[in-house]
Amino acid sequence: MTEGFTSYCRRKRRDKVYGNNMEIQAFAEMYNRPIHIYSYSTEPINIFQGSYNTDVPPIRLSYHHGNHYNSVVDPRGLTVGAGLGFSSLRGTNNVDRDQVKAAIKAQQDQQIENALLAEGRLYSDLELTEKEIERMVMEASRAEYLKQQQQQLNFRESSTSGAEPSSSAAISGSSRSAGTADRVGEECFVLPDTVLTRSMQLLLAMGFNYIQVMEAYSIFGEDVDSMIYYLVEMGGTGASAGGSNRRKGKAAE
């Protein structure tokens, strides 16, 4: 590294500035796991920290088109949290799959129901708006008609009497709309003050967001493995092997 740490961090924050061998080396040390780099073959073209003596599977990355990395994972052997001192999910024999599937289905059904309710409220609001517009147009048309009738009446009276038009203004007879469309206030979701249990703190440290963790905890309690499996199946983004799905950089030759 030939630049100062502050300058390095400032440069890495720029858009389209990606990592390289040094960052991969740092990942290997952070996760305490070897990192294998593949490129269109089953044999790695480079290995970082290959001397590590550990029973944790290595992090595997595939290098493509000379410009980015993809994470290679085994869906049947999840290693969430492995190497970080967390309770990694090595196999799912201790997880009640039926319970997790039931929880996922219940969550999906709830999302569908919420979407249908939101769609129904939208159509109700549109109907109310259309009715309010129709009412306002009818009132405006009636006011204009009454105004014209009053003007014609004043003109006939003036022609009959032969007198000068009075200084008083014609009665407009216009009516103002008294009703307004209902306004739907924004719903504000406030997270309750909750004492974080040890399992909650663990999942939050692994990168899962607060809402997901609270949801998993409400279903499985302190069963960390089931909570992790549930969050992974639901698409949660925790501390996974290899980090993000796509890392860009220069291949290590």
Automatic annotation (TrEMBL):
For molecular function, the Gene Ontology terms on record are: cysteine-type deubiquitinase activity
Instruction: Give start-end positions of Low complexity composition bias.
Output: 158-179
What Pfam families does this protein's entry cite? Answer: OTU (PF02338)
Record keyword Membrane present: no
UniProt keywords, alphabetically:
Hydrolase, Protease, Ubl conjugation pathway
In residue numbers, the region (Disordered) covers 151-179
GO biological process, any: proteolysis
Q: Which family does it belong to?
A: Belongs to the peptidase C85 family.
Q: What is this protein called?
A: ubiquitinyl hydrolase 1
Which source organism does the UniProt entry give?
Oryza sativa subsp. japonica (Rice)
Upper classification of the source organism reads:
Eukaryota, Viridiplantae, Streptophyta, Embryophyta, Tracheophyta
